[in-house]
C-alpha cells in the first residue's frame, strides 16, 4: 500500500524542481559526477560519454535493460508520486473548501508601511491517504466543532472529485474513514486451494480475495442468466474442492460437467440421477446426525466426516422435469418430495457438513421456494440482472446496485455487505487438465 502526501497548501515550485531533479538523477549522474570530481573537462566529458554509451549498450540486452529500467523507476517513481500527491491534494482541498469542511480564520496583518489588511487563513483537516491498486483510503481528522452530519452529507463529493466510486464510509471519534475505488478489480489468476480450511475463494473484490466461509455460512445460491460466465464461475469453485471432500454434481444442461465422470466424479445428467443424488445427500445428513447423536457430538468434524457438496447446475431444468402428479398414498408429487428433501438438507446440512450449491439461470420462486432460498446463505448473482438481484438480495438492497459486465458479480455472504467481485476466465480444457493433475498427484501420494 502506498502513502500519498496530503498537502494542505499548494506545494511551491522549488519542491517540484527538487522532486524533478531527484527523478532524473540516474540520467544526470553520469554527466554531473565526472564534471564535479574531475577538473580536466575533456577527461570528464570522455567519462560521461563512456558512461552513457555503456548504458545504451547494456539496454540492448533484455535482462540488463530490466535493471536499468528498475533504477529509473526507483527515482522517477518518486517524482510521479509527488505529482500524484499534488493532484490528489488539490482535488481534496477544493472538495473540502466547497463542502464547507474547512475552518476559515481571519487575521489582521499590518504591512511594513503601517497599513492593516485582513487575511483569510484556511485550516484543512489533517488527512492520511493510502492507495493500493484498486482503492484509495482517506482518513480525515475532523476539525473541532464539526459534526458527523456535516461530513455525512458531503461524502459523495470526495468520490466525484477523484473520479471514483464510494465503497465505504465510517465516522468514529472524530475520524472520518472513506474508501474509494478508482481502479478496476483484477482477477487474472484462478485460485487453487492449497490449505484444508473450509472456505472457497469466489473471486476478487475491492479489498482483495473474496472468500466464502462455508462452515459458518452454509449453502450457496448462484443466479446467472445465460452468457454471464456461470459455468466459468462454477469451474473456479469446483477446482478448489479438495479431493478428499465428497463432491456430487447434478448437471441439468447435460454438457457442462459430464466430463467430470471420466475423472471419477459422481455426475448425474438425467432426472433419475438427480433424484438419486438428492436422496443420497439427504440420507447422508440423516446418517451423520444419527452418528453424532450416538457419539454425543454436535459437529460432523468430530465424527471424522468430510465436507460433502451437492452441486446442482441448471437446477430448474432438473426440477421442471419432475412429476407434479400427486401420489395417492403420500398426497405429495415427486417435485414436492424432492423440494422437501432439498429443504431438509438446507436446514440441517450445516451441522452435518452437507452443502448445497444451487445454480439457476433465471430466478423462479416455483423452483426455489423462499424457505430453501433463505437457507442458502451465500448468495451470488452474476451479470447483475435486475430480477436476479432482487430475488437474491431483496428489492431495497438491489436498487442501489449497478449493472455489471461479463466476469463480474455481486455476492452477499450471510448478512454481510453486498460485494462487487470479479472472477477469472477459466477455460473448460484448462479446468479438466487441472483436475486431472490434482487427481493424479493424489493417486501418487
Ligand atoms: N471472468 C470472465 N472474464 C472474461 N470472460 C469470461 C469470464 N467468464 C466467462 N467469460 C466468457 O464468457 C463466455 C460465456 O461463459 P460461460 O459459458 O461460462 O457462461 P454461461 O453463463 O455458463 O453461459 P451459458 O449459460 O450460455 O452456458 C465464454 O466465452 C467465456 O470465455
Automatic annotation (TrEMBL):
It is found in: Membrane. It is a multi-pass membrane protein. Keywords: ATP-binding, Membrane, Nucleotide-binding, Transmembrane, Transmembrane helix. Its main location: membrane. It comes from the Bacteria. PROSITE patterns: FTSK. ATP binds at residues 224-231. The chain crosses the membrane at residues 12-37. GO terms for cellular component: membrane. It holds the Pfam family FtsK_SpoIIIE. GO terms for molecular function: ATP binding; DNA binding. This is AAA family ATPase. Residues 207-391 form the FtsK domain.
